């Protein structure tokens, strides 16, 4: 059932494209913001405790619904529920669409659009030099594939819809700047933010990304140039727990770049056609890795190790 649910969700996502309204994080952020403010107002200020109380209701509800619906109409409603949860949790933005958006911006010479798309993928200001900017975007595509795809799938396979929702929750909460109800005397309330909840959410998200990042990196090596990907795998596989998220992203970027031999694809003076071909190789490689994951799940299902 898990394999069928995943295949249906991935096929529907490919067919329907980016579902911006369905995946709009504003509703989730509004729920978390109000709940966090309520907890803080009654004196529950510890960020870890607040995070626990914020995520518990949605994941308990998802777990109960999955258990209940799986017994209705031979599990058909459970299947539909699982597909809906996956469609919500994947992304939230469409990685391939964003990469294509960057390629189009390069093709038409739209510098501002290139910087905007690159900054969104990188999570910071894009490099000034076009060649380095293109390289960083390609590296970010491999890193983002774990946040948007593989981690959600990993936890859905392991623990079902509730775990996928937990990851999407903490991943989203880590990106939000939360206002605090206790501003300092010399600052306006609206200007004061509390990043303690976001930092705890970011730590939990990075922990949940650790195992799928290693499996995805191995997948890149298997589906590409293993010897070149092995360089990144050897250096980054265990990494450091001091900055777990950065370590996960470096592992994925370097193993993915090695697997497709990115430095050879992106020459210093690459034109738009060369860049387009290079980024097509990157996105195709991510898709090949996904196929390997589905094939592995099919083998586990046939062997009776997965439901």
From TrEMBL:
Keywords: Membrane, Transmembrane, Transmembrane helix. It holds the Pfam family CobD_Cbib. The chain crosses the membrane at residues 48-65, 72-91, 149-170, 290-306. This is Regulatory signaling modulator protein AmpE. PANTHER family: PROTEIN AMPE. InterPro entries: Beta-lactamase_Reg (IPR052966), Cobalamin_biosynth_CobD/CbiB (IPR004485). One of its GO terms (cellular component) is plasma membrane. GO terms for biological process: cobalamin biosynthetic process; response to antibiotic. The keyword Transmembrane applies. One of its GO terms (molecular function) is threonine-phosphate decarboxylase activity.
């Amino acid at each position: 059932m898990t394999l069928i649910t995943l295949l249906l969700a991935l096929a529907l996502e490919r067919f329907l494209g980016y579902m911006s309204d369905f995946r709009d994080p504003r509703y989730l952020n509004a729920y978390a913001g109000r709940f966090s403010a309520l907890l803080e107002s009654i004196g529950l200020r510890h960020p870890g405790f607040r995070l626990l109380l914020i995520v518990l209701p949605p994941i308990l509800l998802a777990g109960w619904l999955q258990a209940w619906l799986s017994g209705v109409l031979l599990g058909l409603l459970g299947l539909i529920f699982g597909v809906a949860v996956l469609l919500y949790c994947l992304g939230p933005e469409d990685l391939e669409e964003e990469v294509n958006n960057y390629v189009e911006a390069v093709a038409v010479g739209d510098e501002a659009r290139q910087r905007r798309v690159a900054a969104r993928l990188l999570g910071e200001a894009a490099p000034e030099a076009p060649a380095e900017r293109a390289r960083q975007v390609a590296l970010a595509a491999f890193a983002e594939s774990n946040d948007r795809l593989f981690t959600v799938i990993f936890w859905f396979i392991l623990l079902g819809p509730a775990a996928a929702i937990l990851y999407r929750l903490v991943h989203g909460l880590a990106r939000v700047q939360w206002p605090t109800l206790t501003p300092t005397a010399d600052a306006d309330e609206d200007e004061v933010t509390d990043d303690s909840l976001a930092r705890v959410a970011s730590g939990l998200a990075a922990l949940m990304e650790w195992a799928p990042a290693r499996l995805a990196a191995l997948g890149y090596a298997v589906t590409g140039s293993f010897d070149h990907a092995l360089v990144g795998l050897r250096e980054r596989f265990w990494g450091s727990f001091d900055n777990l998220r950065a370590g996960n992203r470096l592992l994925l970027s370097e193993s993915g770049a090695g697997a497709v031999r990115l430095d050879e694809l992106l020459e210093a003076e690459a034109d738009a056609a060369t860049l387009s071909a290079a980024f097509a190789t990157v996105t195709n490689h991510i898709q090949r890795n996904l196929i390997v994951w589905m094939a592995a799940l099919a083998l586990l299902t046939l062997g009776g190790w997965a439901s």
